[in-house]
Amino acid sequence: MMNLLGRPDIEAGEVFVNFNQNDTSLAVATRSGYSLYSLSSVDLTLDKIYSCHTDEIFLIERLFESSLVAVVSQRSPRKLKVCHFKKQSEICNYSYSNTILAVKLNRERLIVCLEESLYIHNIQDMKVVHTIRDTPCNPNGLCALSSSSEHCYLAYPGSVTSGEVQIFDAINLHAKTMIPAHDSPLAALAFSPSGTEIATASERGTVIRVFSSLDGSKLFEMRRGLKRCVAIASLSFSTCAKYLVSSSNTETVHIFRLDRSAAEQADSKQTSDDWMGFVKHIFDIIIFFLF
Questions:
Q1: 3-class SS at 60?
Q2: Are 218 and 209 a contacting pair, CB within 8 Å?
Q3: Under DSSP, is residue 264 helix (H, G, I), strand (E, B) or coil?
Q4: How far apart are alpha carbons 62 and 53 in whole angstroms?
Q5: Domain range for 48
Q6: What's the CA gap between 60 and 56, in Å, rounded?
Q7: Structural domains of the chain, count
């Protein structure tokens, strides 16, 4: 996910880009609507799936490869619209008390993040099933929702002064655990595909950690460097969860290998080749699209 508002080099074009939950498509929000692209091409071509010319969109989320998209416009930043893009119809809309800062989807839940609250919707009928109120001030809308239905967890900051992570069970609607991940406030969160692990980074950006989302135990710790602090923009696990990628304001991407048991490492070379090929393919597509 990347919010491009305020970037002078693209002030007249794209304002938000986002992958779907399994990285098979790319959503691009612009000042005149949004477009959806397939990432299945092998010839560096972004195949356009759909394009909608409407209000300026600054948030968009697509549900896997389905026709369901959730959008928020600049004109109505407190209103969420859920649409069926193939039928070109609006399924429903909801208004909230403050600006919507983030929207997350999986096959069970839709999450709307405001600065001091989180709304949990049932994806089947879009009704609000739970509200987490009076959360620590979260002006960047930092949160993460597992794409797994089995471990359907929501993560969000538990403090404005330290890097506490609150893990909430979005199916059974109760707090799961609290993880004291960092001394500094959080900057990035990401669940593994299974939802059983969560990667975290703080505003200092020098240390990235991976914890069990089931019991909060620390599994891995990686250092980006000690000389300077950086702003981590995003974290993402590979499909096999053996690699973790981080991006930052230094215009560099770090790929960390998460060493597992010997049994899991037996096929590591093939996994590495597959993952590195996938990373190169995604980078080539993005570079081709942006430049």
A1: strand
A2: yes
A3: helix
A4: 17
A5: 12-95
A6: 11
A7: 1
Spatial contact of 111 and 170, defined as CB atoms under 8 Å apart: yes
Residues 6+ apart with CB under 8 A from 129: 120, 121, 122, 173
pLDDT higher than 50, residue 173: yes
Cα of 148 vs its chain's centroid, Å: 13
Tell me how far apart the alpha carbons of residues 150 and 172 are, in angstroms, rounded to a whole number: 11
pLDDT on residue 26? 94
Residue 236 is assigned to a structural domain of this protein: no
pLDDT digits (tens, 9 = 90+) for 217-233: 999 999 876 656 788 99
CATH number at 54 reads 2.40.10
User: Residues 94-121: pLDDT tens digits?
Assistant: 999 999 999 999 999 999 999 999 999 9
Tokens of 47: 């195949």
Rounded distance between C-alpha atoms, residue 77 and residue 69, angstroms: 16
In a domain, 71, yes or no: yes
Write the DSSP symbol of residue 185.
Answer: P
DSSP state of 10: G
Please indicate, yes or no, if residue 26 is contained in any of the structural domains.
yes
- Say how far apart CA 143 and CA 20 lie, in whole Å: 16
In a domain? residue 177: no
CA dihedral over 18, 69, 110, 11, signed as positive or negative: positive
Could you tell me the pTM of the whole model?
0.85
Query: Nearest to residue 30, comparing CAs of 17, 18, 41?
Result: 17
Question: Tokens 């974290």 identify what position?
Answer: 235
Q: Phi/psi zone of residue 19: left (φ > 0), alpha (ψ -120 to 50 degrees), beta?
A: beta
pLDDT digits (tens, 9 = 90+) for 251-276: 788 999 998 764 355 455 555 555 55
